[in-house]
Amino acid sequence: MIVNERKIETRGRKPKQTMSQPFDINSVKLFRGSELQFSELLFRPMKTNTELDVILSTEGGLMPGVNLMLAGGPGSGKTTLVLDALSKFTQQGYKTLFISGEMDEIGHYKYCKRMPSVGCVQTLFLKDYMLNVKEVIEYVFDQGYDVIGVDSNAEVLEMYRDQMGGTAKQAEMWFLHLQDKIKKGKNQGNYYTSFINIQQMTKSDEFLGSNRLKHMMEAYAAVERSKDGLERSIHFEKNRDCDKDFKVYFSIYGGGVYYSYELEKE
């Protein structure tokens, strides 16, 4: 007698996965700063040619090989800031990628109709790959890009956990380790990739996710919008590449983003 077999699917996330691996004492390496060697390409800033360059780095512009985070509440303008910067880099010949975990093709199409300038940015829609998020992200990161924007960290980590199971900490470890590897040029194109990570905040300005993500970034900026909705700003609370302390204001209208800045501290 032949018995028909079928898989029994269970609801919810997969069981917790173990990420530890055998420790090899010979893998421990100690360095002096004078012993480290990287290409001079790390010291060539990528400019947006806007006031934003002043707070991205002391040299003026986004430096290669950095992880930075933009955090702000709903409607503060985080996505628009990132797409605007990526479009300016793309128009100068830099290789860029926008990873959207929140918008699908229709939503992005409508967005680009309102802001045609961002239509040139190559985009990956993660909702098309919810069963293989880990493999897809690792694949595209490995292709090599000058700048990758991620919208948002929370969505990427949630999709990763839906696929792989495990804890939030394990998802964060995977994502941080992967970005750290790629920004050091360990990808097919040997690009010192810079990552612009969007982090969600609640309406009460609470950080979504652990502070580990924030602390492991070279730069962390708060994106804010006034209660009347008329004033938007970005200010870096931490930036290892910049000794300036400016708050940059920006407005979104007429299909574009317009910047101005104010000195916060001498």
Question: How many runs of DSSP E, i.e. beta strands?
Answer: 9
The radius of gyration is: 20 Å
Which architecture name of the domain at 65-233 does CATH use? 3-Layer(aba) Sandwich
Strand order of the largest sheet: 3-2-4-5-1-6-7-8-9
Span of the ends, CA to CA: 84 Å
The helix/strand series, from N terminus to C terminus, equals HEHEHEHEHHEHEEEE
Largest sheet: 9 strands, mixed
Structural class: alpha/beta
Give the SSE layout.
Elements: H1 53-56, E1 67-72, H2 78-91, E2 96-100, H3 105-114, E3 123-125, H4 133-143, E4 147-151, H5 153-164, H6 168-183, E5 194-200, H7 211-215, E6 219-225, E7 232-239, E8 246-253, E9 256-263
Plain-language structure description:
The protein has 266 residues and is α/β, with parallel strands linked by helices. It has a domain at 65-233: 3-Layer(aba) Sandwich (Rossmann fold). 27% of the residues lie in helices and 21% in strands. It contains 7 helices and 9 strands, in the order αβαβαβαβααβαββββ. It has helices at 53-56, 78-91, 105-114, 133-143, 153-164, 168-183, 211-215, and strands at residues 67-72, 96-100, 123-125, 147-151, 194-200, 219-225, 232-239, 246-253, 256-263. A hairpin with a 2-residue loop joins strand 8 and strand 9. Helix 5 (153-164) crosses helix 6 (168-183). The longest helix is centred in the middle third of the chain and has 16 residues, at 168-183. The radius of gyration is 20 Å and the shape is globular. The model is unreliable at 1-11 (pLDDT under 50).
